[in-house]
Specification:
Layout: E1 2-12, E2 15-26, E3 30-34, H1 41-49, E4 56-61, E5 64-65, E6 73-76, H2 88-98, H3 103-116, H4 132-145, E7 150-154, H5 162-179, E8 183-187, H6 190-196, E9 199-204, E10 209-215, H7 223-228, H8 230-246
Parallel strand pairs: 3-8, 3-9, 6-7, 7-8
Antiparallel strand pairs: 1-2, 1-4, 4-5, 9-10
Helix pairs in contact: 2-3, 2-4, 3-4, 6-8
The protein binds adenosine-5'-triphosphate and magnesium ion (MG).
The site of adenosine-5'-triphosphate has 12 residues, from helix 1.
């Protein structure tokens, strides 16, 4: 899989939201884009998901320009987005039903992906009976179940409190290490970007564009230790300083 985002521009009315946004990813990459609120992060993911059109520039997957949404891109939204009237298993099965997979296969894959996210026991629970973290794990299972070649995550843990957020980060990192998924994570949280991604792009606002890219290069065998290590704290400081320089009025 190769995703190429080339010189992307997006306008809403007369406001330019994204201008000259360029980056590319290959299979197995874990990439993060960090930017402040309103910099255009969700807009980038919506364009890559094919839910919206750029005014110029190009997005291609494996050499073909994007034509619209497709099962090759699995998306987890910023706000909880499970169907409230479907239970966890039915939510996970939703995309597979759209793909017209056979019922027996849907059942098998649903059980498998609920297990992957540690929620086998919650299969028959409705979203309102699940915590925020559990709901986002169901959303991740739903995105994975259609076998996408890239997982697009829009601040998936942004609404969770710190402790749960950290355990969800541990969960996502282990999932990526185990499966070799390709992940594009959007976040405003510098620490989250460094804990999870191999490379971090920093966005400037007005218009949104990537102005700096960092290779993370940290040992991620033990995240609790990592978060306290000098190497991590130094990188975090340097990334935070870059963001502060970009948005002096906001920080
Ligand atoms: N459908 C739309 N119509 C008009 N303006 C929009 C639309 N969607 C987004 N915008 C504007 O585009 C800008 C970027 O929005 P976007 O949601 O991409 O930011 P974000 O970086 O994801 O912010 P946050 O961190 O708060 O989620 C904002 O100024 C927003 O008001
Ligand atoms: Mg957003």
């Amino acid at each position: 899989m190769e995703l190429i985002v080339n010189n992307l521009c997006k306008r809403f009315g007369d406001k330019t939201i994204l201008d000259g946004l360029t980056f590319s990813m290959k299979s197995g990459d874990f990439r993060a884009i960090v930017g402040s609120s309103g910099s255009g992060k969700s807009t980038i993911l919506r364009l890559i998901a094919g839910l919206d059109q750029p005014c110029s520039g190009m997005i291609s997957v494996d050499g073909s320009p994007l034509k619209g949404p497709g099962p090759d891109r699995g998306m987890v939204f910023q706000k909880y987005s499970l169907y409230p009237w479907l239970n966890a298993a039915e939510n996970v099965g939703f995309g597979m039903r759209l793909q017209r997979m056979k019922p027996a296969q849907i059942k098998e894959r649903t059980a498998y992906f609920l297990e992957v996210v540690g929620l086998s026991d919650a299969a028959t629970k409705l979203p309102r009976e699940l915590s925020g973290g559990m709901q986002q794990r169901v959303a991740i299972a739903r995105a994975l179940a259609t076998n996408p070649s890239i997982l697009l995550l829009d601040e998936p843990f942004g609404a969770l409190d710190l402790q749960i957020r950290e355990s969800m980060q541990d969960f996502l990192l282990k999932l990526w290490q185990r499966t070799g998924l390709t992940v594009l994570l959007i976040t405003h949280d510098v620490e989250e970007a460094l804990v999870l991604a191999q490379q971090v792009h920093v966005m400037a606002s007005n218009p949104g564009r990537i102005i700096r890219s960092f290779d993370v290069e940290l040992d991620k065998t033990d995240l609790d230790q990592l978060r306290l290590s000098n190497a991590f704290l130094t990188k975090r400081r340097s990334l935070s300083t870059t963001m502060r320089e970009l948005e002096p009025a906001l920080c």
